[in-house]
Amino acid sequence: MTQPDSGDTIAALSTPLGEAGIGIVRLSGPHAETIARRIFRPHQPRPKLRSHQLYLGHIVNSEGQIMDEVLLTLMRAPRSYTRQDVVEINCHSGYAVLSRILNLTLAQGARLARPGEFTLRAFLSGRLDLTQAEAVMEVIKARTQAGLKVAAGHLQGGLGRGLSQVRERLLDLLARVEAALDFPEEAAELSPDSLKEGLKPQSQSLERLLATYQEGRLLREGLLVVIAGCPNVGKSSLLNCLLNQDRAIVTEIPGTTRDFIEETITLRGVPVRLSDTAGLRPAQDRLEELGIARTRERLAQADLVLYLVDGSAPLAAEDRQALRELAGQKGLAVINKMDLPLRVSAADLQKATSFPLVKISALTGQGIEDLKQGIVDLALSGGLNQEGEIITQARHHQHLQNALALLNQAHALLGPDPPWELVALELKEAVQQLGEITGEEVGDAVLDRIFSEFCLGK
Ligand SMILES: Nc1nc2c(ncn2[C@@H]2O[C@H](COP(=O)(O)OP(=O)(O)OP(=O)(O)O)[C@@H](O)[C@H]2O)c(=O)[nH]1
Ligand SMILES: [Mg+2]
After folding, report:
1. Which of 131, 134, 216, 368 is the most exposed place for a label (fewest CB within 10 A)?
2. Is the pLDDT of residue 19 over 90?
3. For a substitution probing ligand 1, which of 226, 227, 232 has the most ligand atoms within 8 Å of its CB?
4. Domain co-membership, 352 together with 303
5. Is the CB of 261 under 6 A from ligand 1?
6. 31 shares its domain with 113
7. For a substitution probing ligand 1, which of 237, 240, 243 has the most ligand atoms within 8 Å of its CB?
8. Smallest CA separation from ligand 1 atom 12, residue
């Protein structure tokens, strides 16, 4: 077992170590109350603390010196986040006071919690399934209202319940196959067709969930949109225009932007990481060469490219070349500087690329709303579909894909006189894959990886 011992009492700061109105020190474990009693003096002395009640008092050190005035709550097991005894100390938030109170709990026998250890305990005690535990961090990290809505749904257990249901049905089917194997006289009752019928809705549920991943991933990670093009076409101007602030340096000198710049915005509810890059041209010095290499790296990672051309000049040979190289990617061809007399031929540009064309002026803001809509349309084929469960995690996507492939293999075996042992094996593995998502069947190494990405004190 690599999981730390749940018998320890753990302590951590549940709020950031910094100046604020309130900071929270949290304890969980069998000695939480004893430790709290040793460092806490309620203003009205009490022989016993009642559960789920707020007490005003002082935190004192071993010499009896007052460290802070705090509000303390004891939440007795099992009515707590971890289902263990939990104590929360609401103190003032400042570097010295928070570290002092945390250290007092450690001196009284608590152990510093690892990242995510409170939530790990909530999972191990059965209070949350694994999808809910993962959703805790999703809620914390959500950057848009749409992302928060999906995360909150996961936290309510919607995804886990749906998957557990599919898993239960598969277990029923597996039981029928195994009964036929154990009691051959019953095998005649099990027809391949009836099993196929039973499998179908389960496969469909998994397919439906898998289809939501692209959207889910965007909500979670954001869409990487890279602005690229020749020098001086207005890439940095476009970044500034979309951000509504003077973020990048804009000059009439070609080659102004050397390193890429990244900022996050929200477009129609979708978090977008916008990246401005160095203009593409034969590099004139070492610095520019490095900048252009970085542009190429960013382009390779882009979910969507905005390839900018200067509308007030004819299409350059470099533009044709760059657009050829981008042929496999998703993108928009953006004609900028539409406030000036148009000299680029839209027909020429459309011959050079299959990207849809958009005309804008980064200077006056003309066409920018259409560009925003174009980005969202291309990335999400229209917009966010916010109905039903959506998967957002690569881990879930992987296990769902595996499970579906196994069900398809089982289905393919169901001809006349099927090899029932093999069918049972495929079903068993599919059940296992779903259990990895919900945590019903999951190894310590996976738990370690999931919870190590949590913040401290959660
Ligand atoms: N008239 C007009 N000028 C623009 C427009 N967009 C940008 N410019 C001007 O074009 C010049 C170059 O703009 P930048 O935004 O620095 O261009 P860039 O593509 O980032 O250039 P590099 O960083 O050198 O690759 C500046 O003088 C801008 O003011 C536009 O829509 N209309
Ligand atoms: Mg620039």
Report:
1. 368
2. yes
3. 232
4. yes
5. no
6. yes
7. 237
8. 232
Same domain for 373 and 234: yes
254 shares its domain with 329: yes
Asked whether residue 16 falls in the same domain as residue 95, the answer is yes
Are residue 236 and residue 366 in the same domain, yes or no? yes
Tens digit of each residue's pLDDT (9 = 90 or more) over 345-394: 999 999 999 999 999 999 999 999 999 999 988 887 655 666 788 999 99
Q: Does the pLDDT at position 404 exceed 70?
A: yes
CATH number of domain containing 363: 3.40.50.300
Report yes or no on 3 lying in a domain: no
Are the C-beta atoms of 414 and 192 separated by less than 8 Å?
yes
3 state DSSP class of 205: helix
| Cα distance between residue 402 and residue 409, in whole Å | 11
Tokens 């749906």 belong to residue: 162
Name the domain boundary from 127, 144, 165.
127
pLDDT category at 1 given cuts 50, 70, 90 is very low
Q: Give the three-class secondary structure for 373.
A: helix
State if residue 291 touches ligand 1 by the CB under 6 angstroms criterion: no
Q: Would residue 82 count as lying in a domain?
A: yes
User: Mean pLDDT across the chain, nearest whole number?
Assistant: 93
Q: Would 34 be classed as within a structural domain? A: yes
Task: Determine whether the shortest distance from the Cβ of 28 to ligand 1 is under 6 A.
Answer: no
Domain range for 433: 132-212+391-439
Answer yes or no: is the C-beta of 233 below 6 A from any ligand 1 atom: yes
CA atoms within 13 A on the CB side of 184: 3
Q: Is residue 1 domain-resident?
A: no
Is 252 close to ligand 1, i.e. is its CB under 6 Å away?
yes
Tokens of 33: 């109350």
Starting from the CA of residue 234, give the closest ligand. Answer: 1
The number of domains in the chain is: 3
Are 40 and 21 within 8 A, CB to CB?
no
Give the whole-angstrom CA distance, residue 247 versus residue 250. Answer: 9
- Note if the pTM is more than 0.90: no
Is the shortest distance between the CB of 311 and ligand 1 below 6 Å? no
Q: What is the pLDDT of residues 90-112, one digit of tens each?
A: 999 999 999 999 999 999 999 99
**Rounded to the nearest whole angstrom, what is the distance from the C-alpha of residue 252 to the centroid of ligand 2?**
9
Nearest ligand to residue 255 Cα: 1
Question: Does the Cβ of 231 fall within 6 Å of ligand 1?
Answer: yes
Statement to judge: residues 249 and 346 lie in one domain: yes
Contact status, residue 275 vs residue 260, Cβ threshold 8 Å:
yes
